[in-house]
Amino acid sequence: MRTVSFEVPPYTPPEGAMRIIVVDDHCDSAEVLAILLRGKERQVKVCHSGTECLSLVDSFEPQFVLLDLCMPGMDGWETARCLHEHHPTVRLIAITNLDTENDRRRSEEAGFEQHMTKPVRLDKLLPIMNQLAAG
């Protein structure tokens, strides 16, 4: 049997691509969303905690942070409040399983501009992001 090997070149987003951080403690969920967004020519970084997100924001300078709300340690609402206070130009979108009126109110109070329930559909997410980015 003959073995074939090949290298997959690293993904290089186009110049000026939208920069996004996906934050979810469920690694597979975060990676799948990142792969889908990269397929739409977005520059995406993934992290798995609010603390990790806060340390990445200064160096990556994202336009958007897509945040899960239910994470151990610093939850999505607390992370959003910190981001909103220290990086007010970053657009925040909650990506969550939580969908009560109280959850949506808490998201708005924390600084989220959108509250979307999982599973997120790109045909819903991308137009919202484009609209927010356009101002």
Tags for this entry?
alpha/beta, 135 residues
Short description:
Helices cover 42% and strands 18% of the residues.
What does this structure look like?
- This protein is about 40% helix and about 20% strand.
- With about 140 residues, it is α/β, with parallel strands linked by helices.
- A five-stranded parallel β-sheet has the order 2-1-3-4-5, with helices on both faces.
- The model has no long low-confidence stretch (mean pLDDT about 95).
- Identify the overall geometry: globular
CA-CA gap between termini: 57 Å
What string, H for helix and E for strand, traces the elements in order? EHEHEHEHEH
Secondary-structure content class: alpha/beta
Indicate the percent of residues in helices.
Answer: 40-55%
Helix and strand topology:
Blueprint: E1 19-23, H1 27-38, E2 43-47, H2 50-60, E3 64-67, H3 76-86, E4 91-96, H4 101-110, E5 114-117, H5 122-134
Parallel strand pairs: 1-2, 1-3, 3-4, 4-5
Helix pairs in contact: 2-3, 3-4
